[in-house]
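Quick one, probably user error.
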């Protein structure tokens, strides 16, 4: 097992397969124009699969496919099948906005995908138009239903923003119950891309629990033993469970075993990291698996990142980057880094 300077193991890898997205959520992609990764820089399925094998040889057991919107990548089931054949992966998951999920859920299941997380910030189509600039709310719901029918364990990610969707907490729990899914409420984060972020708009874990307790009664923490999981889980009196990712008000960097590979092969050790390590050049210029493994291991051993904790320590907190800073390097965008 490889550990970083704070004894955190290299356990989980988020693999972004594209920086493109078919939504424009205001907490992630609020601008009209973006700088995209050059097409020729995007890793092939063979390159991704090989790199992931090197990661799993070093102890990574959890792999999550992300984007952008990963279902925009042509023929994702083929990559899924290649990764599912890697016996080192214990947990192969996908995070999607759901728009294209209804068409692909069965193929992904057959390819060996283990579980699915769908972003669902609102149950109201008019609100989704405002929040994500799309009229396709019904497609998301159809995607959730198709994933359930395909037999996936299902989670719903809901980013909670004050004055936008914080009046839907109870409704989202009710929706998830009907669709046999578990909700993850996510605090609004000041990551790259969230140029409109302000502390006032953050609905904290404490407030979320207060709202749900007022409706459902006492809520108790669930102990899972998985200290690296980003969400803290809770149980309501009727047995329904949900999670909260409190990255903004109660960060969990001390147990973070996650890193992120962008679609062009840049490896980031933290969602907030200023710089990443390029794997595309070594991959395309004959690096052996042993050389790639050495680069991964030595980089991880030097890791000291505690991005969200550092942000919490700031006296005045504003968006991480303004538009100019994001345009200067698209790797700073959450939709490129795979949130
Ligand atoms: S801020 Fe960085 S170190 Fe902290 S939990 Fe997120 S990815 Fe991990």
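Nope, works fine. Designed sequence:
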């Amino acid at each position: 097992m490889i550990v970083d300077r704070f004894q955190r193991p290299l356990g989980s890898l988020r693999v972004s397969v594209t920086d493109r997205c078919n939504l424009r959520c205001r907490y992630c992609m609020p601008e009209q124009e973006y700088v995209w990764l050059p097409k020729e820089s995007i890793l092939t399925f063979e390159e991704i699969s090989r790199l992931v094998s090197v990661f799993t040889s070093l102890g990574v057991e959890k792999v999550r496919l992300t984007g952008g919107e990963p279902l925009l990548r042509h023929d994702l089931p083929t990559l899924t099948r290649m990764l599912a054949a890697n016996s080192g992966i214990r947990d192969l998951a996908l995070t999607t906005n759901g728009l294209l999920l209804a068409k692909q859920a069965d193929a992904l299941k057959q390819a060996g995908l283990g579980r699915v997380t769908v972003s669902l910030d609102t149950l109201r189509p008019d609100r989704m138009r405002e929040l994500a600039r799309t009229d396709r709310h019904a497609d998301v719901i159809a995607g959730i239903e198709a994933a359930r029918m395909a037999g996936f364990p299902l989670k719903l990610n809901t980013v909670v923003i004050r004055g936008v969707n914080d009046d839907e907490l109870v409704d989202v729990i009710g929706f998830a119950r009907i669709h046999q899914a578990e909700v993850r409420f996510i605090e609004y984060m000041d990551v790259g891309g969230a140029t409109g972020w302000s502390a006032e708009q953050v609905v904290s874990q404490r407030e979320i629990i207060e709202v749900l307790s007022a409706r459902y009664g006492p809520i108790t923490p669930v102990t899972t033993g998985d200290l690296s999981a980003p969400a803290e889980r809770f149980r309501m009196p009727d047995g329904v469970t949900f999670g909260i990712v409190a990255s903004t008000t109660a960060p969990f960097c001390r147990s973070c075993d996650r890193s992120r590979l962008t679609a062009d092969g840049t490896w980031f050790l933290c969602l907030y990291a200023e710089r990443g390590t390029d794997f595309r050049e070594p991959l395309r210029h004959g690096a052996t698996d042993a050389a790639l493994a050495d680069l991964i291991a030595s980089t991880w051993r030097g890791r000291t990142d505690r991005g969200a904790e550092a942000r919490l320590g700031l006296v005045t907190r504003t968006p991480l980057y303004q538009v100019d800073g994001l345009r200067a390097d698209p790797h700073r965008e959450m939709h490129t880094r795979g949130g």
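Residues 125 and 138 are 8 Å apart (CA to CA).
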